[in-house]
Design goal:
The complex is a heterodimer of chains A (about 190) and B (about 180).
Chain A (H helix, E strand, L loop, with lengths): L1 E2 H9 L7 E4 L1 H10 L15 H11 L5 E6 H5 L3 H9 L4 E7 L2 E2 L5 E2 L8 H8 L3 E5 L2 H11 L6 E8 L9 H4 L1 H13 L1
Parallel strand pairs in A: 1-8, 2-3, 3-4, 4-8, 7-8
Antiparallel strand pairs in A: 5-6
Chain B lengths: L2 E4 L2 E4 L3 H10 L4 E4 L6 H9 L5 E4 L3 H13 L4 E6 H6 L1 H10 L5 E5 L15 H4 L1 H8 L2 E5 L8 H11 L3 E5 L5
Parallel strand pairs in B: 3-4, 3-5, 5-6, 6-8, 7-8
Antiparallel strand pairs in B: 1-2
Helix pairs in contact in B: 1-2, 3-5
The chains are: A alpha/beta (about 190), B alpha/beta (about 180).
């Protein structure tokens, strides 16, 4: 298992100022510490929908890499997104899922199928041509750059553990200023 | 123009091609859809053959809410084509993305089992009767597209949604031909 902050930091080292990043819930709070940036897209409106927002962004801005840092509980709420994204096949969409087996943002309760569900397997079956899975940080650090250079859509499951307690100020995700900052930054770039 | 007599009111027909022309004139670049039986033949099937707007199939209607939200930040216009059952299933996504975030989520919604010429609130179908009151409760603007003269409402409604950054629902009240 990989420490989430270290795992996200490995991704951050390969993210450029042109990339759009959609971190979700627990990953979002860690990501904001690691890489605050106006092109972080943080407002997903309802649990599970970040990858669908990402598909819209990827279709609307094919010139940008769109990187989703999803959670396993979130993905379970919107599994159809795997099929829809595979069919739409945006070349610029990279879907990472942090799998810790819990609804961490909702009290740490186990997800259904914890330990037996294969998110990589589901993505492969949904039609993703490029699917990865990592539980070793050094291995991931060596390969993440190449993954982000692939043609999308690419799905990567990251088996992680929490990096510890977080201060969860949800206005950092849902406040109107968050969306204005993103909109302005995307329009200006 | 076809005309039918239903429930004591004469209603004109509803042309799918006219609706498609208005969708295109509204600058819609993506149509995102879960199939709806009311609009299946006259609207959905011909739209699915087009490359512009691009047609995106999704598995569940709330995915489409998210996709339209993402598109809205890129300056592109999306239209979600669904059935009212999917609208009801997506209420939390619409609440969060469209209403609380003030995003221009445009939804064209076929009213399954609505009788032509009967106002939605007077339908014999419970699933139809509750749609407008729910939209009212959520503060979402809607337009009834019941017969051909109503098609003229589509473009202004979509333009206003994007100008105001607010959602809009276009209720398709009979099967487009």
């Amino acid at each position: 298992m990989m420490d989430r902050k270290k795992t996200l930091a490995a991704i951050a080292r390969h993210v450029t100022d042109a990339d759009i990043v959609l971190p979700v819930y627990s990953s979002a709070f860690d990501w904001l510490d690691i890489r605050p940036n106006p092109l972080n897209y943080l407002s997903h409106g309802a649990m599970g929908l970040a990858s669908s927002h990402a598909l819209g962004l990827a279709l609307g801005r094919p010139d940008r890499r769109v990187i989703v840092l999803d959670g396993d509980g979130s993905l379970l709420m919107n599994l159809g997104t795997l099929v829809s994204t595979a069919e739409a096949a945006p070349k610029n969409l990279f879907h990472f899922v942090c799998e810790n087996g819990t609804y961490e943002a909702n009290g740490g309760h186990p997800i259904p199928g914890r330990g037996s569900v294969s998110f990589a397997g589901m993505a492969r079956s949904a039609g993703y041509k490029s699917v990865h899975e990592f539980s070793d940080l050094k291995n991931f650090e060596q390969q993440v750059g190449a993954i982000l250079a692939e043609q999308g859509p690419v799905f990567t499951c990251l088996k992680i553990v929490s990096s510890g307690a977080q201060e969860r100020d949800y206005s950092r995700l849902h406040g109107p200023h968050v969306r204005k900052t993103f909109r302005d930054a995307l329009a200006a770039s | 123009m076809s005309v039918s007599e239903v429930a004591g009111r004469t209603v004109a027909g509803l042309s799918g091609q006219s609706i498609i022309r208005e969708i295109m004139a509204s600058g819609i670049q993506f149509v995102i859809s879960v199939p709806d039986i009311t609009t299946s033949e006259g609207l959905l099937r011909p739209l699915a053959k087009l490359t512009d707007p691009r047609f995106i199939r999704v598995c569940k209607e709330d995915e489409g809410v998210g996709i339209c939200a993402g598109l809205s930040f890129t300056g592109k216009r999306g239209l979600l084509l669904i059935q009212q059952t999917g609208l009801l299933d997506s209420i939390n996504a619409i609440r969060g993305n469209a209403v609380e975030y003030n995003l221009p989520i445009c939804m064209m919604v076929g009213l399954l089992q609505k009788e032509a010429g009967v106002p939605p609130r007077q339908s014999k179908s419970y699933g139809v009767r509750i749609v407008e009151p729910i939209l009212d409760a959520m503060g979402i603007v809607y337009q009834n597209i019941e017969e051909d003269p109503d098609v003229a409402k589509i473009r202004p409604a979509i333009d206003k949604a994007f100008a105001d950054s607010k959602p809009v629902v276009l209720l398709i009240g009979q099967t487009p031909k």
